[in-house]
Hints:
globular, disordered N terminus, Rossmann fold, alpha/beta, 4 domains, DNA polymerase, domain 1, 26 helices, CATH 2.40.50.140
Amino acid sequence: MPEGKAPENKAxxxxxxxxxxxxxxxxxxxxxAPVSSLQGVGPAIARKLAPLGIRTVADLLYHFPRRYxxxxxxxxxxxxxTGEETTVLGKVCDIESRPTRGRKSVxxxxxxxxxxxxxxxWFNQEWHKERLREGVEAAFSGKVQYQYKRLQMVNxxxxxxxxxxxxxxxxxxxxxxxxxxxxxxxGVTSASLRRLVKRALEAVSGMADPVPRSVRDKFDLTPLxxxxxxxxxxxxxAALKKARYRAAFDEVFMMQVGLALRKxxxxxxxxxxxxxxxxxxxxxxxxxxxxxxTGAQKRSWREISxxxxxxxxxxxxxxxxxxxGKTVVAVLALLKAVENGYQGALxxxxxxxxxxxxxxxxxxxxxxxVRVELLTSSTGRTVIDNVASGEVNxxxxxxxxxxxxxxxxxxxxxIIDEQHRFGLDQRVSLSEKGEDPDILHMSATPIPRTLSMxxxxxxxxxxxxxxxxxxxxxxxxxxxxSQRKGAFAMVGREIKAGRQAFVICPLxxxxxxxxxxxxxxxxxxxxxxxxxxxxxxxxxxxxSDEKRKVMRQFASGRIDILISTSVVEVGVDVPNATVMIVxxxxxxxxxxxxxxxxxxGRGSERGVFILFSDPSTDEARARLDAIKRxxxxxxxxxxxLRIRGEGSLFGNRQSGLPDLKVAKLSRxxxxxxxxxxxxxxxxxxxxxxxxxxxxxxxxxxxRRFGGSLDWLFKG
Length: 715
């Protein structure tokens, strides 16, 4: 053995021993292991679990039941009544499949619970018999009918509870009083998920709790392992309620811890640019405005200006109602960068909006000696070279700004408009084209307070919550087809008075599958309806030059009626437009409708917003009721959150944030507020969570953020 080798091996052994985790910590870390590490989960089952988002043991543990069946309160089949929505439980005792005259098939599967029989009936869905085999115990949910001398449900929803081939009855997890029912997929039933969850809980038995005891005591939280067991296999409703509260708290608290860590890290890493020279351009611009800024605009500018003067890099969201004057504040920020010898860049999501910004900012800065250029995918090499040389002071562009060929001489400020339209990587890419430029995010989409505290929890926020003086507002009317003649007559009166109108359609061409008016065909129809008037057409499939030409003609008054898809939803500013008709309005989301409404009534005349619709769902009716009821965008955003839930609003893939599976932003404002307060307090006292009592919290937070906080473990 070479000299010195033994001591080295001894030292390595000691370090390895020191690195051994105590059993509770090791059990917690096992949650990060692949789901295939569990007994009985081979490659085939792992592949079937992947569509459910289950790849690790933790994914399985946090794949929570969508609902529960309490056997003690189920309706006996012998007691059900026709016409009622109910859930019954029984064993499959008969399977019948027969063809119909129209070459279709009818599948009838009957269950029996000791008190009676009821059948589930499906048309052309033979695959159900692969899951509902004879002897399998299943719960059917649906409306009870009495036909052909028997009780039945047509297309019932169902869950397989037990009795499947290969099931270990000794596990006894399908026969308790409260049975969890999981979101399932092909080849993975609710019953098989219960078995896998039981094994996952056994694998992490004795796990440590990552939430510090002081926080658990303060919020009266059930210990984590107990909470997970109660969520999956509840003993009673009271314990289940406390367990789900613990899960909701963890989701919100660890998200806020992650946001607080990101904010601290950002502030520590981003030294930033101190834009602190004597104001020149900003004062000249403010004095040239033909109106006085609102109090909210002035407040927002003070906050942004203070950030830009600081040596710490700005990372702020400017949020404002449609037409509230965000562009004026953004221009002030751009000029502050320019008067300090830097360039400013504004990135917008669409060419129409980008063109509008370019033309409007150019007009605002006329006579100030500031060079503004437009950069899109069709921009020539000359503009790119002039940006790189520093000859261009302000560049307004689409995502073309982040292409590799674009570089800046001295980028000092990045503004990202409608920032939720861009992915996290796109936003970062633009900021990396400068040496720690200040970053200002802008959004004209009002965001509920709870969503703002989560989605933008690591940003400073300025809100413009006032509209410019003199606006008369917009009247919103929800109409059916019988009122079309009157609506068109009103459009005619507005045009005769020298004003303009929009007609918005959801599609470009007629579709056999969707009964919706198409912009192209609507233009032909309206040309016949309004002979002698100029009608324009705008949609996303037009070439950039064509779109710009149409928008210039509409803005100059040469087009009386603009037929368009929702490409005009953001940023289009034509003060003379007073009427907007939206065809098939139930096909648009609330945020889209509110943005569209913001395109009219921007001048001194009152706007009229007419929605033609024949809603076929409760959700569509709720959206139309909300857009009619609420003028305020923030109230409308809260309504949208209640109607749609978090899933479609959160944008997790773009935000880089973990999912909320239990916590509801529409209901848990106080929980989010308190958890955020506690998280930011904790991180302020321990910025890298290095204290012994916070190490597990650091690990678990990073796991939930998909490893994006790995920098915490370096150094």
